Amino acid sequence: MTDWRQARRGCAAAAMVVLAPLIFPALFSPLGFAYPSVFSICDAVAVAKILNATLIIPHLEVNPVWQDSSYGIAAISPFSHRLAFDNMPVEIQRLRCKVNFQALIFVPHVRALGDALVNRLRSPYGKGAAQFLQETTDSKDKQARKFVALHLRFDKDMAAHSACDFGGGKAEKLALAKYRQVIWQGRVLNSQFTDEELRNQGRCPLTPEEIGLLLAALGFDHNTRLYLASHKVYGGEARISSLRGLFPLMEDKKSLASADERAKIKGKASLLAAVDYYVSMHSDVFISASPGNMHNALVGHRTYENLKTIRPNMALLGQLFLNKSMGWSEFQDAVLEGHKNRQGQIRLRKPKQSIYTYPATDCMCQA
């Protein structure tokens, strides 16, 4: 197996000397978290380098997509994420890598809350809630537990836009179709396909039940501590009850944080996403129920840091879940076979793919 490492070390260290004049302390502190904005700033830094210009990095305070109630001092939306990924000078590519994976950091209070949640996730299971929440974030338990971060991207927008059938019957289909018409005026590509066609093509997001079965088939069990990174789950608590049944040690921001900590991030979707991202980056294993901005950002970041990430084989799983006569042993064998090469192995970037999702070989080199 080829060993890959960050380009700032080892074989490519000399190439990074080009970046030395650029000083990157904690110069970008997103109070909120908008993935396209982060990538746009990375590209803006690269353009500034190409033009030999001075760039003032904004202290990003608000995510305009989510309409957070916090206030900001910079608007970066006019700068689109359009800088090409191919045929760029090596030093520019590695500058983009350095900005995205090393220079851009969260504000202290996001890191502090994230560290607190990670510390609590790694604490022994038997502790009571009061003691659990009073632990300091800088102390490390000698018997720290491992945990899996699950990004459950299954909100109403995702369910409706996918045009998939999630087992809610005719009423649910009509409700999602109506919502789809209101939000996107019917301009949804998936609407022209049947549910079976969508699942065979891997276009349907995994439901909480399905992601639970996937994790179980991969060998995770009721002793696995699971962190649920999610905003609003379509169907609410009832929808994730089966997942919680399989993984009773499942936690989320609400269950881990104190009332005071929750109050600081309540109603601020981008802040909530920032905390989820931070905790997911510090997990032992990360898995997402469907592709998307957060999935892509975390896959790239964790690849760069050589952390284990499971990438669900969506087409295979869609086909397996359509087979209602398959037994558990057959299902598990198929899942294990279909995910042998999807559990953290480095994938080299192909033409036109983003270096922020596929950092090898632009940001990494062979050891």
UniProtKB/TrEMBL annotation:
Where found, per UniProt? Membrane
State one molecular function term (GO). glycosyltransferase activity
Give one GO biological process term.
fucose metabolic process
Stored InterPro entries: FucosylTrfase_pln, GDP-Fuc_O-FucTrfase, GT106_glycosyltransferase
Major location (coarse): membrane
| UniProt KW keywords | Carbohydrate metabolism, Fucose metabolism, Glycoprotein, Glycosyltransferase, Membrane, Transferase, Transmembrane, Transmembrane helix
Q: Which is one Gene Ontology cellular component term of this protein?
A: membrane
Report membrane topology. Single-pass membrane protein
Sequence similarity: Belongs to the glycosyltransferase GT106 family.
> What name has this protein been given in UniProt?
O-fucosyltransferase family protein
Starting at the broadest rank, the lineage of the source organism is: Eukaryota, Viridiplantae, Streptophyta, Embryophyta, Tracheophyta
